[in-house]
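input
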Amino acid sequence: MDTARITRFVSDLWDAEIVPQLMDYIRIPNKSPMFDKDWVAHGYMDAAVKLMETWARTKLPSLPGATLEVVRLEGRTPLIYIEVPGQNDDTVVLYGHLDKQPEMTGWSEGLGPWTPVLKGDKLYGRGGADDGYAIFGSLAALLALREQGVPHARCVILIEACEESGSYDLPYYVDHLASRIGNPSLVVCLDSGCGNYDQLWLTTSLRGMTGGELTVQVLEEGVHSGDASGVVPSSFRILRELLSRLEDPETGRIKPKELYAEIPPQRIEQAKAAAGVLGKEIYSKFPFVEGMQPVTHDLTELVLNRTWRPQLAVTGADGLPPLESAGNVLRPKTAVKLSLRVPPTSDGAKAGEFVKQLLEKDPPYGAKVSFKLEKDGSGWNAPQLSPWLEKAVSAASEQYFGRPAAYMGEGGSIPFMGMLGAKFPQAQFLITGVLGPHSNAHGPNEFIHIPTGKKVSMVVADVVARHFEQGKR
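output
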């Protein structure tokens, strides 16, 4: 394998075709079904699928025997299934998704979620990094190998359209396609993050999640606050009290021991190593307001907080009028959307049921309290890397990034990993991505760092080739 040719081929393909394709993809507002209930009627998801399908089909002639199908199960989001024959009977699965998070506010002037803007090495817009590039990067890797005749195992590319909603459609597709997918020995996922853009980062674990809508109602309609305050308990105060059952309001620590899991010693050591590599960048990458501080200055604890400990975020609210129209009214109800991250080895469904019981039991003052569960997904803890894969990622990181590979858990969730880990316990996993400092997935000013996208594609090509070589031994 000529690594210089890999580098040139992948870089040229990104510049000539992939970046323009990503710009067209960013323009499509194909929000995940949780955020667009009328996604079928709007047609944006189909438009994103068509864009990727069309480009991928132009590459199939360069991959002899390759096939592509858009699989559609009744009532579910579509899935792109690509199969590329290999030079042995082994299987590599390469995974990504094409659905997107909603717009979010706060985009800088000239930027927007559906407006692709290329500034230097960064392409701004929703979904490029999370993770519309996956299908392009996966095919670029395989095309680079085929261009110089480097053998590889049979490869299956799966691109789903429901990940940002918890991948609730994906199990049905995995079952439907089980005989075609086969029994992979290597799974490559490009939907994760990187601690910096200077080296390859392997994701060692992913937190699970649960969440939903917590509603507190005290009245049938709003009433004069001067008349009712002191008599009618505020729905906001009750909601605050309920949240304090779950989260310590002073420290942010989740209170119930049932929502914790034991952290493996290896993960603690890897967190220390990651903290040593990243230093203050662990928290300085976030756009803090002036004077704001992280929850602690212990860098290892920050890594463990975001990778192995449960944490709560309130991501939306209802029942609160805009400030300019907030009259002197004691409001009838307050509702918030909760997103609770749970440890990688916790059961997301059980965590959700626990939280529901915790919040709904014994409501203060007899208020009407409901917690509507909307999502749950268990996390994932990677199996120990086999010697060949550890050597392969180390060599690939040195070759294409010029620095050693690094290892760290991620705070986000990729439900597919836990699902595949359970179905294929003998598989090895290469989980990586381009979501580095300031890339801001799900938020304003999201961008993909193009040089990292290129290098990750090169790494995938290199590792897939080494996977074939170790299979011959």
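quick obs: The first strand starts at residue 67 and ends at 71.
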